[in-house]
Automatic annotation (TrEMBL):
This is isochorismate synthase. Residues 159-414 form the Chorismate-utilising enzyme C-terminal domain. It comes from the Bacteria. It is an enzyme of class 5 (isomerase). One of its GO terms (molecular function) is isochorismate synthase activity. It comes from Geodermatophilus amargosae. Keywords: Isomerase. Its EC number is 5.4.4.2. NCBIfam families: isochor_syn. It catalyses: chorismate = isochorismate. The keyword Kinase does not apply. Belongs to the isochorismate synthase family.
Length: 424
């Protein structure tokens, strides 16, 4: 085992000050063009900018290292927090690699965080800045939208990716595994620089039921909540099983078909089971509805299960923080498969790409241990080298009976979430 690689700017915890804002600002409107950090749903959540500190970490102990780092960074000289709700006081935004042992996970402590929750709004600053002085008086104008977008295949062209799906169905038929999630990437280049704020605005408008996120150039609107912790209360929204949207009566027919599909319900049950099995040892209560409901988005419809639990008060598991819980539940069968080790090996053998932080946990954590992590889906990684380019990701659960052409169409429907933001 190699040791986790850790880079962090300096060793002294910054000072944090939080004040309540008299008016509730539009969070996304506050973001600057560079370094946008976001976790926003229906106008509530957190945005941040500037970097007071940053941790990049990988290796088998990556999330434990990150938890220790954050405990030190958030526990420094007492935070001056006059608001006292989840997300006020010290906050770190995080985007964790799909495979935290192999990929790089990024943790950013912003210089400024603005939050909104239940109608209360606040601003938190790190260092000497006075929280009353840091909000922009007006928004820097958005860059013009692209007039031309060029798409190119990522790691696998569509026909080769369908071949990978067939191979996975073969492995499932041989009894090697029950489910594997296979993803593909799509490269896009615009004729102008991409403005993250324009993309976030469009995603938030079109996907009000999703969490619009941005951390270190990974931007998206995810419908899937891996884990939220508020005190001892834990909650998650598990998704698996997808149908396209249709027009008029066809849409109703597709919805009814998804809810009654034995294949989709079995695929969904594997994802719920994987979360419940991993979370159960940490909980005194864990409640799972009898069957899935439908989550309807602009581009697709999913089978969804909302799970809620209460974390134990005592013992080692009672002391587990949110990053330890995230480490325990990730990857669920919603993004990896069943059993997870075999599925991970099939992904490594068939996908032909590095997922990076796609399908990894993304969200935020505060100094009390409250926070929210979604799965980084319906997203794109903006290129560091070329400000006009991005890499989009989409994947699908493959089970017995999966049809490669239908799975390819499903990835296209999922890409469409980010494409609409680029194109509008
Ligand atoms: C892997 C993705 O989505 C996951 C796979 C789903 C499915 O196969 O039905 C549904 C929701 C997500 O859990 C993705 O959007 O890239």
């Amino acid at each position: 085992m190699t040791a986790a690689a850790v880079t962090s700017r300096d060793a002294v915890a910054p000072l944090y000050s939080t004040v309540e804002l008299p008016d509730s600002p539009d969070l996304l409107d506050l973001l600057p063009r560079e370094g946008a950090l976001s976790w926003v749903r229906r106008g509530e959540g957190l945005v941040g900018w500037g970097e007071a500190d940053r941790l990049e970490v990988s290796g088998p102990g990556a999330l434990a290292e990150a938890a220790a780092w954050w405990a030190e960074r958030s526990a420094g000289p007492a935070a001056d927090d006059g608001v006292g709700v989840p997300g006020s006081g010290p906050v770190v935004f995080a985007s964790i690699a799909f495979d935290p042992a192999a990929g790089t996970s990024v943790f950013v402590v912003p210089e400024v965080v603005v939050g909104r929750r239940g109608g209360v709004a606040w601003v938190t600053t790190t260092g000497d800045a006075d929280p009353r002085d840091v909000l922009p008086s007006s928004r820097e104008p958005l860059l013009p939208p692209p007039s031309r977008l060029r798409y190119a295949d990522g790691a696998l062209d569509p026909a080769t990716w369908c071949g990978a799906v067939s191979a996975a169905v073969g492995r499932i038929g041989d009894g090697d595994l029950a489910k594997v999630v296979l993803a593909r990437d799509l490269l896009v280049t615009a004729d102008v620089r991409l403005d993250p704020r324009r993309l976030l605005d469009r995603l938030a408008e079109r996907f009000p039921d999703c969490w619009t996120f941005a951390v270190d150039g990974l931007l998206g609107a995810t419908p899937e909540l891996l884990l939220r912790r508020t005190g001892r209360q834990l909650s998650a929204r598990v998704l698996a099983g997808t149908a396209p949207r249709g027009a008029g009566a066809e849409d109703e027919r597709l919805a009814a078909g998804l809810l009654s599909s034995a294949k989709d319900r079995a695929e969904h049950a594997l994802a719920v089971d994987s979360l419940v099995r991993a979370l159960d040892p940490y909980c005194t209560t864990l409640s799972v509805p009898d069957g899935p409901s439908l989550l309807t988005l602009a581009n697709v419809r999913h089978l969804a299960t909302d799970v809620v639990g209460t974390q134990r008060r005592s013992g080692v598991r009672g002391r587990a923080g949110l990053l330890e819980l995230v480490d325990a539940v990730h990857p669920t069968a919603a993004v990896c498969g069943t059993p997870p080790d075999r599925a991970a090996a099939v992904i490594a053998g068939l996908e032909g790409m590095d997922r990076g932080r796609y399908a990894g946990p993304v969200g935020w954590l505060d100094g009390r241990g409250d926070g929210e992590f979604g799965l980084a889906l319906r997203c794109a990684q903006l290129s560091d080298e070329d400000p006009c380019s991005a890499r989009l990701f989409a994947g699908c659960g493959i089970v017995a009976g999966s049809d490669p052409a239908a799975e390819l169409a499903e990835t296209q429907s999922k890409f469409a979430a980010f494409q609409a933001a680029l194109e509008s």
